[in-house]
C-alpha cells in the first residue's frame, strides 16, 4: 500500500515481533514432528519475504535437530499466470541448495497465502528442477480467498479477511522491523491506488 | 514505453543494468536439467534474416525456444525475397501471421528502424545487426561478459573499466553498439584501428581513438578484437594482411603485456592468424566461447523484458510513464508491486 492510502485507512497490527518469533518456533517443531526428524527436509523460500522466513525457520530447525538444514529460494516470476496483466516483472533469485530437490521433502515457505496462485506457480517451477519426495507448504499468514485447490501444511496465523482488506508482512531483513499489518484497501477511485491496480492487473495473484 | 530494441544508444543505464541482471537469472536456468520456461508460451517470434548468420540466429532461436515461444525462421535465401519481394510486403506477411516479435538482421543500416516505425507490424522489433549500424544484443552480451569477469557483482555497471576495441571499426556494428552501451554503463572506451578503418564523425562518439595498439594494451581491462570484414572491404584499407596482423593483431607476446586480470574478447567469427593468433584465441583469457553462451542468456532477457508482460519493462527517457526502475524511488515502487501480489 502506498503511504497516502494507509494514512486514510490506518493499518492494524495483527502479529508483533514476539508473535512472529513464537509462530516460527512452533512451525519448526511441527516440521520436525511431521517429518520425523527433518533429515531430508529442504526449505525453499519464495522471494522476497518467504526467503527470509525460510532462513529463520532453518535456523530454528538447526537449533532443534542439531544439524544444518539446506535452505534456498525459488523465484516463481517466470511461472506466473498473470504475467500478461502487467509490465514484465523484475526477476528474483532462485537458489537451489547443493543437495538438490530429488527425493527430498521440500517445504515451500511464503509470507501470505491468498489466492494460491503463487503456490501453483511454485509447484510448476519445482517440477522443472527435479522430483521431490513430497512438497509441503508453510506460511506465516493464511488470509483465505483461495482460487485454487491448495492448502498450507503449516500456518502461522489464520487471518479471516475480506478482499477489501490488505495484509502486509514486515520483516527486519527487508523492512527494518517485524510485524503483520491488516489494513483496508483505499477506494478504487483514488488515483494512486487506481494506477497501482492497473499495474498489477485485476486478479490477485498470491 | 519502448517496444523495440533497435539501438544500444536507446537504452538508459537502468535499462541496461536491468537487462544484465535479468540475463544473470536466465543464465542460472541453463544449469537445470529442464532448460525450458513456460513464460512466452503462445507467443510467436520470427527470425527474419536477410544476411548470413550462424551464431546470432541460433542464439535468438535457442533463447526464444527456452522461453517456450514459437519460433519461425525466415532467411532471405530461398524465400520470396529472392523473387523480389520488398521489406514492406514481407513485413505485412509476418504481421498477418501474428508475429509478436520480429528479430531482424539486414544488410542495410536502418532496416530495423524502418520496420519498427513504419506501422507495418504491431509487434516488437529486435535488431540483430543492420548493415554497419548497430548490433545491440551483441553489445549487451559483451557487457554481460565483462561484468562477470571484471566486476563480478549483480546490479553493478562497468564504472571506470577501460575497454579497448581493436580493428575494423568502420564496418563494425558491434563496435558502434558497444561504444554506446559501454559508455552508458560508465566504462572508458578506446578504439584502436588503422586511420583508414576509423569512421568519419568518430569525434562525436563517447570514446577515444588511438592508432597505437601497444600504447593502449597495458592500460586495458578488456581488449575486444574485431573481425576484419573482408566481405565489406571494397577498397585498399591497409597494404597487406601481414602488415595488419603485425600492427593490429593480438598475439601471445602482446597479450602478455596486458594487465594480469585483463580479458580478450571476440564477437566471432574469428580469423585466426589475422586479428588474433590461435595461441590467444585458445587461451583461458579469451572469452569468445563464453560470449556465445552468454548471448543466449542476454537474448532470453531481452525477449522476456519486451514480451513477458502486457507492455515492455524497458523505459525510454522521453516516456510519459517511467518504469519503476527508472524512478528515484524505483526499488520501493518495485517492492510495492511485488508485495501486493502475495
Automatic annotation (TrEMBL), chain A:
InterPro entries to which the protein is assigned, alphabetical: PRTase-like, PRTase_dom, PyrR, PyrR_bifunctional
Record's compositionally biased regions (Basic and acidic residues): 187-196
Reactions mediated catalytically: UMP + diphosphate = 5-phospho-alpha-D-ribose 1-diphosphate + uracil
Motif PRPP-binding, residue range(s) on this chain: 106-118
EC supergroup of this enzyme: transferase
Domain Phosphoribosyltransferase: 15-169
One Pfam family here: Pribosyltran
An annotated Gene Ontology molecular function: uracil phosphoribosyltransferase activity
Keywords, sorted A to Z: Glycosyltransferase, Transcription, Transcription regulation, Transferase
Chain residue ranges for the region called Disordered: 183-206
Coiled coil: none
Enzyme nomenclature, EC number: 2.4.2.9
Family: Belongs to the purine/pyrimidine phosphoribosyltransferase family. PyrR subfamily.
Function: Also displays a weak uracil phosphoribosyltransferase activity which is not physiologically significant. Regulates the transcription of the pyrimidine nucleotide (pyr) operon in response to exogenous pyrimidines.
Name of protein: Bifunctional protein PyrR
Lineage summary: Bacteria, Bacillati, Actinomycetota, Actinomycetes, Kitasatosporales
Amino acid at each position: 500500500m502506498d503511504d497516502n492510502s494507509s494514512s486514510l485507512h490506518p493499518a492494524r497490527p495483527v502479529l508483533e515481533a514476539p508473535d512472529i518469533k513464537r509462530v516460527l518456533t512452533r512451525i519448526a517443531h511441527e516440521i520436525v514432528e511431521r517429518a520425523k526428524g527433518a533429515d531430508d527436509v529442504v526449505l525453499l523460500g519464495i522471494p522476497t519475504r518467504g526467503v527470509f522466513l525460510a532462513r529463520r525457520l532453518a535456523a530454528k530447525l538447526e537449533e532443534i535437530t542439531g544439524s544444518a538444514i539446506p535452505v534456498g529460494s525459488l523465484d516463481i516470476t517466470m511461472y506466473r499466470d498473470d504475467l500478461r496483466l502487467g509490465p514484465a516483472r523484475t526477476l528474483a533469485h532462485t537458489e537451489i541448495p547443493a543437495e538438490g530437490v530429488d527425493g527430498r521433502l521440500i517445504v515451500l515457505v511464503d509470507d501470505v497465502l491468498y489466492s494460491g496462485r503463487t503456490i501453483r506457480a511454485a509447484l510448476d517451477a519445482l517440477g522443472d528442477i527435479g522430483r521431490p519426495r513430497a512438497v509441503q507448504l508453510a506460511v506465516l499468514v493464511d488470509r483465505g480467498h483461495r482460487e485454487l485447490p491448495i492448502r498450507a501444511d503449516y500456518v502461522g496465523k489464520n487471518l479471516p479477511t475480506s478482499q477489501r482488506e490488505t495484509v502486509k508482512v514486515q520483516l527486519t531483513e527487508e523492512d527494518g522491523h517485524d510485524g503483520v499489518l491488516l489494513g483496508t484497501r483505499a477506494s478504487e477511485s483514488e488515483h494512486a491506488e487506481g494506477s497501482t491496480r492497473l499495474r498489477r492487473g485485476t486478479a490477485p495473484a498470491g | 514505453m519502448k517496444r523495440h530494441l533497435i539501438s544500444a544508444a536507446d537504452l538508459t543505464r537502468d535499462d541496461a543494468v536491468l537487462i544484465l541482471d535479468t540475463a544473470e537469472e536466465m543464465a542460472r536456468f541453463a544449469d537445470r536439467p529442464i532448460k525450458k520456461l513456460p513464460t512466452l508460451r503462445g507467443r510467436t517470434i520470427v527470425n527474419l534474416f536477410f544476411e548470413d548468420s550462424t551464431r546470432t540466429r541460433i542464439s535468438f532461436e535457442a533463447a526464444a525456444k527456452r522461453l517456450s515461444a514459437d519460433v519461425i525462421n525466415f532467411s532471405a535465401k530461398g524465400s520470396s525475397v529472392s523473387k523480389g519481394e520488398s521489406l514492406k510486403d514481407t513485413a505485412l506477411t509476418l504481421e498477418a501471421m501474428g508475429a509478436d516479435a520480429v528479430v531482424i538482421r539486414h544488410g542495410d543500416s536502418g532496416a530495423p528502424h524502418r520496420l519498427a516505425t513504419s506501422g507495418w507490424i504491431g509487434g516488437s522489433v529486435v535488431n540483430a545487426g543492420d548493415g554497419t549500424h548497430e548490433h545491440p544484443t551483441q553489445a549487451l552480451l559483451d557487457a554481460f561478459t565483462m561484468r562477470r569477469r571484471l566486476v563480478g557483482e549483480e546490479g553493478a555497471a562497468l564504472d571506470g573499466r577501460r575497454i579497448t576495441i581493436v580493428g575494423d571499426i568502420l564496418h563494425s556494428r558491434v563496435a558502434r553498439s558497444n561504444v554506446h552501451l559501454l559508455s552508458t554503463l560508465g566504462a572508458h572506451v578506446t578504439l584502436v584501428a588503422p586511420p583508414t578503418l576509423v569512421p568519419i564523425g568518430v569525434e562525436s562518439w563517447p570514446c577515444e581513438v588511438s592508432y597505437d595498439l601497444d600504447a593502449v594494451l597495458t592500460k586495458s581491462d578488456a581488449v575486444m578484437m574485431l573481425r576484419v570484414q573482408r566481405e565489406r572491404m571494397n577498397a585498399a584499407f591497409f597494404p597487406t594482411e601481414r602488415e595488419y596482423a603485425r600492427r593490429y593483431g593480438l598475439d601471445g607476446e602482446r597479450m602478455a603485456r596486458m594487465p594480469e586480470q585483463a580479458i580478450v574478447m571476440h564477437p566471432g567469427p574469428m580469423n585466426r592468424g589475422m586479428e588474433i593468433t590461435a595461441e590467444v584465441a585458445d587461451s583461458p583469457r579469451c572469452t569468445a566461447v563464453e560470449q556465445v553462451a552468454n548471448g543466449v542468456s542476454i537474448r532470453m532477457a531481452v525477449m522476456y523484458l519486451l514480451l513477458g508482460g502486457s507492455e515492455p519493462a524497458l523505459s525510454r527517457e522521453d516516456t510519459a510513464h517511467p518504469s519503476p526502475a527508472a524512478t528515484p524511488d524505483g526499488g520501493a515502487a518495485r517492492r510495492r508491486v511485488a508485495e501486493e501480489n502475495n
